[in-house]
Every structure is written in C-alpha cells, then in structure tokens.
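User: Just a sanity check before I run the rest of the batch. Below are the structure tokens for the first item. I only need the designed sequence back.
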C-alpha cells in the first residue's frame, strides 16, 4: 500500500476520456491542474474544423473538468496553449479564447507544437477556494497597502 500523496484525481464524463495514463485533472496544493485537452467532443469524439471552433471546444472540455470541482474559468490563474500552426492561427485562436475569459485574465503561455491531427491543445491551473483567500476588494493583512513600502524591498529614504 502506498503513502497518501495529498493529491486527488478529478474525473468527469463531460470531458474527453484520457487517451493514456493520466487524469483529466488533479487537485493538489490548493490548485486544480488539468490535463492538456484537445477539441474532441466528449459525447461523439468529433473534432470541429478550424482553430476558432477547436479552441472553443477545448475550453468547453477544460470547463467541464473545472465544473466537476465546482470551479469555472474565472478560477483559472494559468493557461498553457499549444497551437499546431502558431503564426497562421494565433489571431483566430486568441479571438475565440477571449470569448471565454474576463478581466483579470489568467496568465498565458502560447507555443507552437507538433500536435497529432488537431490544431489546439490547452491545459490550465485553477485556484481552489479556501478560507484564507482574501477578498479581492479588501486589503490583505499580510500584504503592504498601496502607500506602504514592501518590507523586503528597498524604499525611498524618508526624513526621520
């Protein structure tokens, strides 16, 4: 019997089944990490034509895994996207992507990759809710306010 790892697999029938030895998502350390998803429809396996339609289906697949843990795309803090034709498809991919995210958008890395019979693959990291998370409109007691210098960074010399 192995030791507990502090991670939990996430599974849902609303996203494509893994094609190999991996989970659709894993919860660990206060985050949900998704696998890289392609544009396959989870019910039919069909792949839409074009990078915009594929991007939309990929993000619906990712959203299904997030929903299995009560999260939405608003909880995403990091996106990694792979495009088969980076230069050719970036504008159409970005336009489709923008329809799924609101400000503040998650950080994102988009790279060109040799993908197998698809145009886009995306994985994300989402923040799980927790009691220690500060409200976004209130100052956090452990962080300096806008008028206070950060204690670890040099600040201006003020007259004493």
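Assistant: Here's the designed sequence for the first item:
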């Amino acid at each position: 019997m192995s030791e507990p790892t502090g991670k939990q697999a996430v599974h849902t029938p609303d996203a494509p089944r893994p094609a190999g030895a991996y989970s659709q998502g894993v919860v660990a350390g206060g985050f949900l990490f998704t696998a890289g998803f392609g544009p396959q429809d989870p019910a039919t396996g069909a792949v839409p034509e074009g990078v915009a339609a594929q991007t939309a289906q990929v993000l619906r697949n990712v959203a299904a895994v997030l929903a299995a843990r009560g999260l939405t795309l608003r909880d995403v803090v990091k996106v990694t996207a792979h495009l088969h034709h980076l230069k050719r498809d970036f504008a159409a991919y970005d336009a489709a992507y923008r329809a799924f995210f609101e400000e503040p958008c998650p950080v994102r890395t988009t790279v060109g990759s040799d993908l197998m019979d698809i145009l886009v693959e995306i994985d994300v990291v989402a923040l799980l809710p927790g009691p220690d998370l500060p409200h976004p409109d209130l100052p956090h007691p452990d962080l300096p306010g806008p008028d206070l210098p950060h204690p670890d960074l040099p600040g201006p010399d003020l007259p004493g």
